[in-house]
From TrEMBL:
<feature type="transmembrane region" description="Helical">
    <location>
        <begin position="41"/>
        <end position="57"/>
    </location>
</feature>
<keyword id="KW-0812">Transmembrane</keyword>
<keyword id="KW-0472">Membrane</keyword>
<dbReference type="InterPro" id="IPR029062">
    <property type="entry name" value="Class_I_gatase-like"/>
</dbReference>
<protein>
    <submittedName>
        <fullName>Glutamine amidotransferase</fullName>
    </submittedName>
</protein>
<dbReference type="InterPro" id="IPR010768">
    <property type="entry name" value="GATase1-like"/>
</dbReference>
<dbReference type="Pfam" id="PF07090">
    <property type="entry name" value="GATase1_like"/>
</dbReference>
<feature type="domain" description="Putative glutamine amidotransferase">
    <location>
        <begin position="354"/>
        <end position="496"/>
    </location>
</feature>
<keyword id="KW-1133">Transmembrane helix</keyword>
<feature type="transmembrane region" description="Helical">
    <location>
        <begin position="678"/>
        <end position="697"/>
    </location>
</feature>
<feature type="transmembrane region" description="Helical">
    <location>
        <begin position="12"/>
        <end position="34"/>
    </location>
</feature>
<keyword id="KW-0315">Glutamine amidotransferase</keyword>
Length: 701
């Protein structure tokens, strides 16, 4: 800011009339000498003019100015990228020295603010600066201690770098490095969210070299759970490459990809990334056979048709072959019941067979029923929903299918005909199929009633639902490689109609069908793990009591450790434990493998700051335009050291070699002034004598 020139006033030594008279006589004498062509006239005229100026006594006035109290910001970047190398140490040393210097400067208050950053938002220094400058009365400048990687750099000079009068204050950038750095990162360009089991996922990745030229040779590696690495591709930085990952099982598949390091790069933290690929089955195929038209068939059909992952084949048997009925077959079905195709040729293509109210009265020959039993033993899923037909002669339990059924119904007194509310058994409270079913809802504290069920005289497997008297309602069992379930009532459809509030029929049937189709999240025996707050938490679910439950943990570098899992009081059938992740100077991988008995799982370190880790260089590139516009300086702390903090004039430079400056803001007092001679007396006297001497010298020639 330019202040106005001092004011000029005249304070003559002689009275004004006398001074004007002397000036007039001098003019007359000068004209006379000019007419006479007198020598030395110009020199004498100059001496007279200077003498008259001396007698007029010009004075300049100086207004009194006062330095205002000033505020400056010391902004310290504490984002996660500042943990790279020696950045934090350089920043802390600069902070302490600048605060000490600020205390020694008169009238200056140096306010420090710490900017944590991270949490998925990156580093946002200018948001913090904008908030802090609102409370400053007279901002003089901003000292920014950072690595230069900010994610909210404004396109133009922000208002926080200007005073209320519009004057720009300097932004000084103090960088925690010796100079511009380089960094290598591995990016996932595209990856499918879901991959069908048995197929290959095609992943597009690219390695970027930041701060240096692209096209350098680089290897893409995969870390195994034994600590070894496998080269997946040879490529060049800046070029996309496809990686093929086979998916062998349902659920989450974790793969860690790593780019070979770049010489001299700032950090290896973003050289690796973890792929999370979800393995899913191809369309699940379900065969639903309804023995007779009934309300339950509609419930099953609505549920399975609403699931986009299910292909449903549904047949309803309108009458048995020996039914005395004159109705033509063409009026009973559009196509004949394809028994041979379904139960002989394509039975193994189904993931689940549901027999709802199915009564085997000369409908399927013995060989087809044997095929169903064989299908279950080889890994298929079978659900039998039973009603009164199960108490009649020639039911499924009297066929080869009965060998895989988990319950038997006697022909006499096999029906329970009274209202009851289904309840979970002790085992049902911990089994994944029924564990988390809602107990409170429109039905109140108890599910709506059913009015009919089957009484069993023999059961095996696991009973999850029962009547209040203890009669089984839902029984699950395994037969060799397959799974089978029996729902011993055909009235679950009452819940869908809201009978006295209804019940969670849709969720129960969804879980039951998916358990039969071996969906991983519904397994009775599960091993799960997750990482939180620097610890690995392990949960082992088992319906059987585990003795000496120990889990083996394999770290990314291949080292092994053991942890004992203990039962939890909150949930029956759950064992849990946790272990701290040891800090490592150089992270060799991100995936941990956990084994417990025959089960295993993997867990990966999360990326809490993906935006922060995109570029881990220390660089002045992003902030240089703003620094230059504000008149500030750029200091590399690792090379130049901590600069000296100065208070400088508003019109001068704000930085120099080894120092940075804060402009002094001054205000003018309204009345007080000081006067000083405009021209020094000694200088005027020397000028007069010199001119007079020259004029005498000219006259004497």
């Amino acid at each position: 800011m330019m202040f106005p020139l001092p004011s000029l006033i005249w304070m003559p030594v002689l009275p004004l009339w006398l001074l004007l008279t002397v000036a007039g006589l001098s003019i007359i004498m000068g004209l006379y000498g000019l007419i006479r062509h007198a020598r030395g006239l110009l020199w004498r005229a100059g001496a007279i003019i200077i003498g008259l100026l001396w007698l007029a006594n010009p004075q300049q006035t100086h207004p009194h100015k006062q330095i205002q109290p000033q505020d400056a910001l010391l902004v310290v970047d504490l984002s996660p990228s500042m943990e790279v190398g020696t950045r934090r140490a350089l920043i802390e040393r600069a902070r302490s020295q600048l605060l000490a210097q600020g205390q020694a400067l008169h009238g200056l208050t140096l306010h420090q603010i710490d900017v944590a950053g991270g949490n998925g938002q990156g580093t946002r220094l200018f948001e913090a600066i904008d908030r802090a400058t609102l409370t400053l009365n007279n901002p003089a400048g901003i000292l920014l201690l950072t690595d230069g990687m900010d994610h909210d750099v404004p396109a133009q000079l922000p208002s926080s770098l200007k005073t209320i009068t519009g004057q720009t204050i300097p932004l000084h950038l103090l960088l925690a490095a010796k100079g511009e750095e380089t960094d290598r990162r591995l990016r996932i360009l595209s990856a499918p969210p879901y991959v069908i089991i048995g197929q290959t996922a095609h992943i597009s990745v690219q390695v970027d070299d930041l701060g240096t030229m692209a096209g350098q040779a680089v290897d893409i590696l995969e870390h195994g759970d034994d600590g070894r690495t496998t080269v997946l591709a040879h490529t060049q930085s800046g070029q996309a490459v496809d990686i093929a990952i086979p998916i062998t099982h349902a659920g989450l598949t974790l793969k860690e990809l790593t780019a070979s390091p770049l010489a001299g790069e700032a950090s290896l933290r973003n050289n690796s990334t973890v792929l999370r690929l979800q393995g899913v089955r191809d369309r699940l195929r379900v065969l639903l056979v309804s023995g007779v038209p009934n309300q339950g068939a509609r419930v099953w059909r609505s549920l399975l048709k609403a699931d986009p992952s299910v292909d449903l084949v549904h047949f309803t048997i309108l009458r048995s072959p020996d039914t005395a009925d004159d109705t033509p077959l063409s009026d009973l079905a559009l196509i004949p019941f394809p028994t041979h195709e379904l139960f002989s040729q394509k039975i193994n293509s189904f993931d689940l067979i549901i027999l709802d109210g199915f009564s085997n009265q000369n409908i399927l020959p013995e060989s087809y029923l044997e095929n169903i039993a064989h299908y279950v033993r080889q890994g298929g899923g079978l659900l039998v929903v039973g009603g009164p037909e199960m108490t009649q002669a020639g039911t499924l339990q009297d066929t080869p299918v009965g060998a895989v059924l988990p319950a038997h119904i006697p022909s006499e007194n096999g029906l329970i005909l009274q209202p009851f509310s289904p309840k979970r058994t002790a085992l049902g409270l911990s089994h994944p199929v029924t564990r988390a079913l809602p107990t409170h809802g429109p039905w109140g504290d108890a599910w709506g009633p059913w009015y009919r069920a089957l009484r069993t005289d023999q059961t095996q497997g696991r009973t999850l639902l029962a009547t209040p008297s203890g009669a089984p309602l839902l029984v699950l069992d395994q037969s060799d490689k397959g799974r089978v379930a029996m729902l011993l009532s055909d009235q679950i459809w009452l819940w869908s109609r809201g009978e006295k509030g209804g019940g969670p029929q849709a969720e129960l049937l969804r879980r039951l069908s998916h358990w039969l189709m071996k969906e991983p999240e519904l397994e009775e025996n599960q091993l799960e793990a997750h990482i939180s707050q620097g610890r690995i938490f392990i949960q082992r679910t088992s319906l059987d009591v585990l003795h000496n439950a120990q889990a083996e943990i394999i770290s990314p570098d291949g080292s092994h450790s053991l942890i004992t899992l203990t039962p939890t009081a909150e949930q029956s059938g759950l064992w849990a434990g946790s272990i701290a992740i040891p800090p490592t100077a150089k992270q060799t991988g991100q995936i941990w493998t956990i084994h417990q008995g025959a089960l295993n799982t993997t867990v990966a370190l999360t990326e809490p700051n993906p935006l922060e880790d995109q570029d881990l260089r220390s660089t002045a590139t992003l902030l240089t335009p703003l620094v230059r516009q504000s008149g500030g300086g750029i200091i590399w702390l690792g090379r130049e050291g901590v600069p000296t903090l100065r208070q400088v004039a508003e019109t001068g430079p704000f930085h120099g070699s080894g120092w940075v400056g804060l402009p002094l803001h001054q205000i003018q007092l309204s009345t007080e002034t000081t006067t000083t001679p405009y021209l020094p007396s000694w200088l005027l006297l020397v000028a007069i004598l010199t001119l007079v001497g020259i004029s005498w010298w000219r006259e004497g020639r």
